[in-house]
Amino acid sequence: MATATKERILNDFYPTPAPITHQLMSKNPIGGSVLEPCAGHNAISDVLDSYECIDIVHSSDLLWPVSPGRTTNDATDPQYWAEAPKVDWVVTNPPFNVAEKILPLAYEHADRGIAFLLRLSYLEPCNGRKEWLKQHSDQMKQVIVVSPRIRFRSDTKGSDSVTCAWFIWDK
């Protein structure tokens, strides 16, 4: 029996459940100043802000025009990073369809490292990320596979159909 495929949610807005961010902190504690460039509704920032060792310097939306007159930031644009405050870490769950644009900019911006929540398939050497992954393979400190699978959508039964992981690159 074929199942109907669910449409992607506008702007790939899939908030990160709090236990997933706590899992990151339990397996690879991050400290210092943190920038969350794809904050949406601050799911990651709110959890990180509960840790005494973290100072959330800045959180912003990616490129979603949520309401008329609301200012948005575009983390795929180098100008966003030029204007953002310097930080120790960039921690985010970016929209998967633009992750390969954001990741190199975030890596260059952070002083200590980056932690990105991505599909496990991000390790596949596709054209848009193959060279960057190859050049930075020695800086990849850890891949924390999230198990069981995250349930990002409330309109599905059980978990979503993809395995995600925290990817951590140190500088």
What does this structure look like?
The protein has five helices and six strands, in the order αβαβαβαβαββ. The protein has 171 residues and is an alpha/beta fold. Strands 2-1-3-4-6-5 form a six-stranded mixed sheet. Strand 1, helix 2 and strand 2 form a beta-alpha-beta unit. The longest helix is centred in the middle third of the chain and has 11 residues. The chain is globular.
H/E element string? Answer: HEHEHEHEHEE
Beta-strand residue fraction:
15-25%
The N- and C-terminal alpha carbons lie at a distance of 48 Å
| Number of separate strands | 6
**What structural class should be given to the helix and strand makeup?**
alpha/beta
Return the average pLDDT rounded to an integer: 81
Specify the number of helices: 5
Provide the helix percentage: 10-25%
Q: Sketch the major β-sheet.
A: 6 strands, mixed
Going across the biggest sheet, name each strand in turn.
2-1-3-4-6-5
Radius of gyration: 16 Å
Q: Name the poorly predicted regions.
A: 63-70
Map the helices and strands:
Elements: H1 18-27, E1 32-36, H2 43-48, E2 54-59, H3 78-83, E3 87-92, H4 99-109, E4 110-119, H5 130-135, E5 140-145, E6 164-170
Parallel strand pairs: 1-2, 1-3, 3-4
Antiparallel strand pairs: 4-6, 5-6
